[in-house]
Amino acid sequence: MKKTTRLLDLTAAMILLLLYVAFSLPLVSGDPGRRVSMTLVRDAAALGAFCLDGSLPAYHLDRGFGAGSNNWLLQFEGGGWCNDIASCVERAKTRRGSTRYMGKTVVFSGILSNNASQNPDFYNWNKVRLRYCDGASFAGDSQHGNGTSLLYFRGQRIWNAIILDLLPKGLSKARKALLTGCSAGGLSTFLHCDNFTSYLPKNASVKCMSDAGFFLDAIDVAANRTMRSFYKQLVSLQGIQKNLDPTCTHAFYPEPSLCFFPQYILRFIETPFFILNSAYDVFQFHHGLVPPSADRTGRWNRCKLNVTSCNPHQLDALQGFRKDMLGALMNFFRNSSRGGMFINSCFDHCQSALEETWLSPTSPRIHDKTIAETVGDWYFGRGEEAKEIDCPYPCDKTCHNLIPAASATDFLVNLDIWLLMLQAITIAVHSLLFFFFLSTFLVRSLV
Ligand SMILES: *[C@@H]1O[C@H](CO)[C@@H](O)[C@H](O)[C@H]1NC(C)=O
Ligand SMILES: *[C@@H]1O[C@H](CO)[C@@H](O)[C@H](O)[C@H]1NC(C)=O
Ligand SMILES: *[C@@H]1O[C@H](CO)[C@@H](O)[C@H](O)[C@H]1NC(C)=O
Ligand SMILES: *[C@@H]1O[C@H](CO)[C@@H](O)[C@H](O)[C@H]1NC(C)=O
Ligand SMILES: *[C@@H]1O[C@H](CO)[C@@H](O)[C@H](O)[C@H]1NC(C)=O
Ligand SMILES: *[C@@H]1O[C@H](CO)[C@@H](O)[C@H](O)[C@H]1NC(C)=O
Ligand SMILES: *[C@@H]1O[C@H](CO)[C@@H](O)[C@H](O)[C@H]1NC(C)=O
Fold it and tell me: What residue ranges are annotated as transmembrane (predicted)?
């Protein structure tokens, strides 16, 4: 008799556990956003469009539905650049330079979410994430061989190959379209915006939005133009110059590589453009304003990790950076009738791809408007001009002032890491609960 009770107890425990696992799994995979699987671009080989290591490029497509079935949102993935052979060789062995090492699914959240309450204006559109594996913001066209192996610098061809793959899937009949991207992908948005428009029907509504891609031609705290030298090497190594806007490179002769900087291309872009950026963008703070080469003694280390530890002199430098950014945007702010902007004052980088910053009760705001509302109002022409500029730090109380404690080189604009961390925490909590249940029931049924 006692034995049967024990057996029943054990069975009940097992059923409960199974139920628990069944219910917790969708939570684990569904919480931060939907996972969408990868499509390799098979026809890319014929176009010579390869990732750094020679692997095929890829994208992730989440089909639109209902009223959004003919609308398309394309998002360039970000992830820094490689501007010399050594760093490109390293990158080719990672998911930043090869689809072989990439996760075969990615999370679609924020502006890519298909949940109407998290993404009211674009949730039912066709949404595409273009995977980044060329190391030059989808703009290079060259290669490097050392006799035994080849490095492919084919970003421009990858862009082309992905568009040609998507056109017959419905992109060629788009009614509305938005080209976007974050960080190095935000920069791609500036570089490819007008080319994107040229592929779509003349009567389609096409617009572009860069997120954290307004990389400034900044002077660092050691008075060097670190970003300018970096981009100059990149443009030369990866054969980017011939893909830059010819009107711009002509205007900036003899320094055509300046046309890799958004602030110099901006006035040549004809498609309506939205610029989303923090005036204290953390990546630019760490790599443009205070790159490691400009702070060999490490006086900025604490300030870089936590802005409340910055001394008055360091805060002045940060305010100077903001002024320079606003200065570079002034013409656009005053003169661009169809442009939009959201330049807030949070220590952040990439704000459109996470629910927390894109649209949530606690997400950043300017004049009480979230990023999702401002971008939506601009895209659909609702209300007045959508150009928002925040007051200087520390006035904005809606910021999370998120400075990740990762080392500067690790912090290559990696949203996936944040999402993975979120998931890891969720899984850990669930596993703990799981073992708690398991032990409770086992103890109950065995005693
Ligand atoms: C959509 O998002 C809202 C707000 O975050 C959430 O409460 C709801 O559960 C989500 N719906 C689905 C189907 O995931
Ligand atoms: C060529 O490059 C590959 C990696 O890109 C390296 O393993 C190899 O040693 C190099 N060969 C020579 C001769 O430099
Ligand atoms: C654009 O024109 C095509 C062909 O005339 C038509 O089928 C389509 O509905 C139009 N699209 C828009 C957004 O008006
Ligand atoms: C867009 O880019 C592709 C290849 O990169 C090129 O063939 C095409 O002519 C470009 N379109 C325009 C309008 O520049
Ligand atoms: C930065 O500038 C200093 C002088 O202001 C110079 O000594 C140094 O070599 C420069 N560093 C780089 C990386 O250009
Ligand atoms: C930054 O420093 C302040 C004051 O020293 C502290 O209250 C805050 O928790 C720190 N923030 C982070 C993210 O470490
Ligand atoms: C706006 O455009 C006009 C005419 O092209 C130009 O003269 C003016 O300087 C521009 N405004 C700013 C702030 O650059």
Answer: 417-443
